Amino acid sequence: MASTKRLLLLGGHGKVSLHMTPLLVANSWRVTSVIRDESQKNEVLSAAKEHPELIDVLVSSLEDVKTQADAKKIIDQSRASCVVWSAGAGGKGGPGRTQAIDRDSCIHFIKAAASTPSVTKFLLVSYLGSRRNKAPWWSDEEWAATEEVNSGALKNYYPAKLAADESLTAAAGRSEHLQAIVLRPGSLTDDRAAGKVSLGRTKARGSISRADVAAVATQLLDVNIAGPFTWLDLVEGDEPVEDAVQRVVEEKINCIEGEDMIGMERSLTAEER
User: Fold this and answer.
1) How far is CA 123 from CA 39, 154, 243, in A?
2) pLDDT tens-digit readout, 34-55
């Protein structure tokens, strides 16, 4: 009998996570969904109603995760082999809360996962503009527009997400057991799933439904990427989800091109001192 696939879903009441939950249990994942408040529990359970035996709900605020040890307790409790981060402050509570959740708590889970040999994959839902340098396939105009948004409307969110993305990438790069996927969707909508996307080296701006993000993320959990990490950009497009995922795996697409891997490793090393 095949061993149980166990997954820790951080931010379990978020919109992407609620779309992911029925897909995950349908794919035989045993999901521990972490939510902030007991009042959110019924909605999570309802999302897994077709397979209620495969969902566990853990009420634990990610804002209260202050150390790697705090994060490791949650990972150990779930017995997960895969961790999905689809959580965030959502712009509520000011810059301090964004840093506490989107950066600090996420990084604590990354480090805890990297120190737990049974965790073999970590998927982080980030966003398309989270990078330091211009993607080689973007135009100068696209990069200028991205920088304008990152330094303006997303001036607090951008550095928090970038720090988490880079921390995960560097941690996976030095790990012998952990693969990292940074999934980087464009502007999120509540439209129905189209079932067709553009995945990999996409244009710099575009939208994508949360339902399609969930479908792509779920598919990525069951494939083996090349190397220890990959960044994948995601917007709406014309390619069926399953075909798009298979293509980026076969072609070894990695949107980290143009970023400073040595700098990421140095930053991680500095944090550990």
Assistant:
1) 26, 22, 19
2) 999 999 999 999 999 999 999 9
